[in-house]
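Hey all, sorry for the wall of text incoming. These are the two entities for the joint prediction.
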Amino acid sequence: MLLCDIGNTHFHFWDNGKISHILPKSLHKNMFNQEIYYISVNAQHEKLLNKTFKTTYDLESIIHLPTQYKGLGVDRKAACLCVSDGVVVDVGSAITVDVMSGGKHQGGYILPGFNEFINAYARISPALQGHINFGLEPSALPNTTKDAIGYGVIKSTILTIQNTIGSKKAYFTGGDGKYLAKFFAQAIYDETLVFRGMRISIEQALQKRRKQQGIQEKQGQNKEQE
Amino acid sequence: MLLCDIGNTHFHFWDNGKISHILPKSLHKNMFNQEIYYISVNAQHEKLLNKTFKTTYDLESIIHLPTQYKGLGVDRKAACLCVSDGVVVDVGSAITVDVMSGGKHQGGYILPGFNEFINAYARISPALQGHINFGLEPSALPNTTKDAIGYGVIKSTILTIQNTIGSKKAYFTGGDGKYLAKFFAQAIYDETLVFRGMRISIEQALQKRRKQQGIQEKQGQNKEQE
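and here's what came out:
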């Protein structure tokens, strides 16, 4: 089975367990020749996928997550479907943090991904332009501009997510998820979280269909017996 | 006395206690006809000030703050000069957080100002574009995209600064300082912090000059007596 999670920067493919991250400019029709089951948070990239590949199926309508949240991204829904109790942190172009309890989504929030977070500084002043050290969690107060920016980005991200996690279990995914998970003792990193959610939804949809077909067959038999 | 604190967005003027915030495009030579004593963190805006007004003096060389920090902005130095022990938070285009202890600067860090922080979301995805509610501190987990962004911006800023302040006193300044100070029980808002630091530096420089002149006069008298 070939799954695709269309994000704001990459196309994430899951090809029977093998994961690849493709930039829009690198997408090519010869890459895959199977049917593609996808979810998307980016309309433009979704168009590109549908233009590039012949047989694609949007799974959005079968991704069901119990939630009060209006407009929850379909990738967040899929990832949350894998977690009954705990915090789901997807660290990509944006960092999304969602809380699950008893199989129900309790709400969540969004932080900028590291890339755009750092870019925000450069746009304030050329003096704040540059790369940051993604090393250890900053402990001492910075004494250089570079460290002052690194502290701002990393410390604020960690403190906010830590405030949400508390003593709960935390499941990290996404491109920078492995890096960020290091700072949390109770974190589990799972690159496949969104894809697992997509597969759970496919399985649920198939079961529902089988059940309906079963009922229809039974109804048909009953009619014949009448 | 007319002071000017040149920032990355505004020119902040202090005209004998009266404060005004002028955008670069609104700066006009008829606004002031006194000498202007200024500090600047933006070379382009500094040029504009010097082009617009005849008599200007850069105070940077007389702003002395004991610190190990390399490249500390002159406005941060000036604000810190007013505080012997405590945390100085300047909430402008950027949010700078600096810790003072025993009259010495202990280090500090930078967060994006609210404007560029919010812009970072819009650059990730058009779905994350929009204004946020600057109301109360977010307590419940968000259930809409708008609240999810507001939570990300406000909560991460508050948690990071709170982590630094702890039980220390905190002094807030800058355009959004009054708003942000509301979330901290131990916060004092002072719009004039940077200007007070500039005046402290001017007073110190004058005292030093008077002392040197006194020594020179005394040396002159001694020479005459010889």
